[in-house]
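Problem 12. The chain below contains 179 residues. Write out its predicted structure in token notation.
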Amino acid sequence: MPKYFAFLRAINVGGHTVKMDYLRSLFAGLGFSNVETFIASGNVIFDSSSKSTGSLEKKIETALKKSLGYEVITFVRSLKELAEIAAYQSFAPKDMNAADHSVFVGFMADSPSAAANRKLLALATKDDDFHLNGREVYWLRRTKFSDSTIYGVQLAKALGMPATLRNLNTIKRLASKYC
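Solution.
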């Protein structure tokens, strides 16, 4: 059975606290098997016979809204997609591997338009750089994330759609464990 990764937006941020054992039980209740969570930030790994990440996203979003009482935008990726995201070289290796730099991956439902790409690239500063690849945006931070003048709402506005961010190290750890 295919393995999938759900990246949930608005889990354990902004006053919305969800225990991981409860989240796992919700996913198991949807008929998914081998359900696991990875760190308490809305990363759920599960097996499903479904072949459509889009239908999985809708099924999960509907169940989470009903259970939690608020919208949880969900981004599902397959095992193959996760491996590709983890391996993708979005920036020069010297930038990606510098001790004081961080790379974040923003998951989106669709590829942004060319106009959205231009708006995103216009956000770049000496400390922040961006790169789009399909349904993911890669964000290079050359200083601490907390020092950035860019924030998630700005990013979503430039993209014209919601996104959820994960540190690339988290994605690589997931890929190393499952791929």
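Discussion. Residues 88-178 form a domain with the Alpha-Beta Plaits fold (CATH 3.30.70). Students who got a different answer should revisit the alignment rule from Section 12.3.
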